[in-house]
Structure formats: C-alpha cells, structure tokens
What does this fold into?
Amino acid sequence: MLVRLHMAFRCGLRVVAAFEAAKGFIVLAAGLGLFHLVHKDAEDAAERLVRHLHLDVDSHYPRIFIDAASRMDDTHLRILATVALLYSLVRFVEGYGLWRDRRWAEWFGAVSGAVYLPLEIYKLWEGVTWMRVAILLVNAIVVFYLTQLLVRRQTDPVPTPNSPSAPAGS
It folds into this structure.
C-alpha cells in the first residue's frame, strides 16, 4: 500500500517537474529573444509582436508594452535577458530534482512557490481576472502538494520494494 502511494506521489512529482521545466523553456525563449533584440529597435519589435498577436497597438496593455520597449537600451536588454536565463536555469534545476525524486527539490519547490503566493493574492486584490485566479490556484496547488509530500515523508518513510520492511508481494 505504501509503495503504491509512493508511486502516485512520484507521478505527481513528475507532473510538477514537467510544469517547472515548461516554465523554464518559456522564460529561456523570452531571454533568448531579448538577447536577439540587442542592437535592434526594441520598440519596433514590440509593435510587430503586438500586431502579430492581432492586438490593437493603441489599447492600454499593448501600449504599455510598446512604451516599455521604447525605453530599453542594449544594457537593459542584456540585464533582462541574463536574469531570464538565470531564472530558467533555476526552473530546470528544480524540474530535474523533482523528476529524480530529490527531497531538496521538494523543499525548494514548496518554498519558492510559497514566496509568490502573497504577491499573487495582492494582484488578485487589485483586480480579479481569470488569468490571475488560474495562476494563484495552480501555484497554491503545487505548494500544497509539495508540502503534503514533505509532511507525509516525514511521518511515513516509504519502504523500497527490496527493503526488508517492505510487505511481501509489493
């Protein structure tokens, strides 16, 4: 029974690991895109992206994005790109640790996810949108899951199938 429960938790860990790796790939792509904009017109690139996404360049949020891009110089682009690459590296390391069932990654994932919860609640307080609700729920579920896994491991050490304390036939 405990071995089956452990396997279910491990499957959940793999889902969380894949989610973290996916976040890493998205931010990696963004960071590489920022590096690509060095020595180029970032405002023009932002405007083309907004048009490509079929958004109105004069509406509020796309305009904020385009205006922010217009203030980007090469130094800012390099800094943002480097931060994005470092963040993606952290997500990849966490994903690897969770995939390999490492306890340190469970701790890291629970703590790093919990750090964002107050900010996500504050953003929700500013205005409720489906995206903000979804981000808060997904992050809360991941933090809850990893915390429950850590607590369960603390109280119920899981026997391996070959250990002497494992029940026969497991």
Observations:
- Residues 160-170 have pLDDT under 50 and may be disordered.
- Residues 2-37+72-155 form one domain.
- The chain has one domain: 2-37+72-155.
- The helical segments are 2-36, 42-52, 60-70, 74-99, 103-126, 130-155.
